């Protein structure tokens, strides 16, 4: 993806987020130079990979297959392993109309996916086999706003604004906006996007960046190369 396109996506996402009554934290608006100057203080932000995340899954067709994310907070795996402390994460996502986030699951993360505003969020569901692998012939069970709901393979769950679903490890899912763009909330256990996204197809989690202009703000995938530690 071109950096100029990423900058435009950031600006449009910030506008949509504000439209639905949310405001991103102050570090969202740091310039790259400001981030570098505050890197020593911002170790937790950097290590937890909090911040902007825009991906085309390496396919270079963002409008058809892509996702906007902003990680607001993220816990520590060590706390999760010992059973106490900061064991949670929170994100905002934007799924555009008919923009596919491809079928995947997580081996660690359980997540509540919430339609925070906009159009209908469609989530296509599949179950796992006994080893947790994608099983196109198996269904499962999810919880929708406190109610247990069985799903059959390939069932398309449709969430209106305010509705939510809880997905557990082994619930394979794809999603997209129907009838317009959707602002999504995600509340989950500790999030590790480097290793805890398992896709049916062999695709990349992060975009390859073409530096045609300077970045407005850094992506989480920029931290290793842009920030001194």
Automatic annotation (TrEMBL):
Q: Does the keyword Cell cycle apply?
A: no
Q: Which cofactor does it need?
A: Mn(2+)
Which of the seven top EC classes does this enzyme belong to? Answer: isomerase
The protein's matches in Pfam families, at most eight in alphabetical order, are given as: Lyx_isomer
Source species taxonomy: Bacteria, Pseudomonadati, Pseudomonadota, Alphaproteobacteria, Rhodobacterales
Q: Please state what the protein is called.
A: D-lyxose ketol-isomerase
- Signal peptide residues are none
Annotated GO molecular function terms are: D-lyxose ketol-isomerase activity; metal ion binding
Q: Of which family is this protein a member? A: Belongs to the D-lyxose ketol-isomerase family.
Please name the InterPro entries in this protein's record.
D-lyxose_isomer, EcSI_cupin, RmlC-like_jellyroll
Q: What is its EC number?
A: 5.3.1.15
Arranged from A to Z, the UniProt key words for this protein are: Carbohydrate metabolism, Isomerase, Manganese, Metal-binding
Spell out the reaction equation it catalyses. Answer: D-lyxose = D-xylulose
């Amino acid at each position: 993806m071109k950096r100029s396109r990423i900058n435009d996506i950031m600006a449009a996402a910030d506008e949509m987020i504000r439209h639905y009554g949310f405001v991103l934290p102050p570090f969202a608006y740091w310039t790259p130079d400001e981030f570098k100057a505050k890197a020593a203080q911002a170790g937790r932000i950097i290590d937890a990979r909090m911040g902007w995340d825009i991906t085309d899954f390496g396919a270079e067709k963002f409008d058809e297959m892509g996702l906007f994310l902003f990680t607001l907070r993220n816990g520590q795996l060590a706390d999760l392993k010992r059973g106490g402390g900061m064991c949670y994460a929170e994100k905002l996502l934007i799924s555009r109309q008919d923009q596919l986030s491809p079928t995947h699951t997580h081996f660690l993360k359980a997540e509540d996916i919430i339609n925070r505003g906009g159009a209908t969020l469609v989530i296509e569901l599949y179950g796992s086999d006994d080893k947790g692998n994608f099983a196109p012939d198996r269904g499962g069970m999810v919880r929708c706003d406190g109610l247990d709901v069985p799903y059959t393979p390939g069932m398309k769950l449709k969430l209106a604004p305010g509705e939510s679903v809880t997905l557990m490890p082994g619930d394979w899912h794809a999603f997209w906006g129907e009838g317009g763009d959707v602002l999504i909330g995600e509340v989950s256990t500790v999030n590790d996007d480097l290793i805890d996204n398992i896709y049916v197809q062999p695709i990349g989690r992060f975009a390859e960046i073409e530096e045609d202009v300077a970045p407005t703000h850094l992506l989480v995938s920029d931290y290793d190369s842009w920030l001194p530690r």
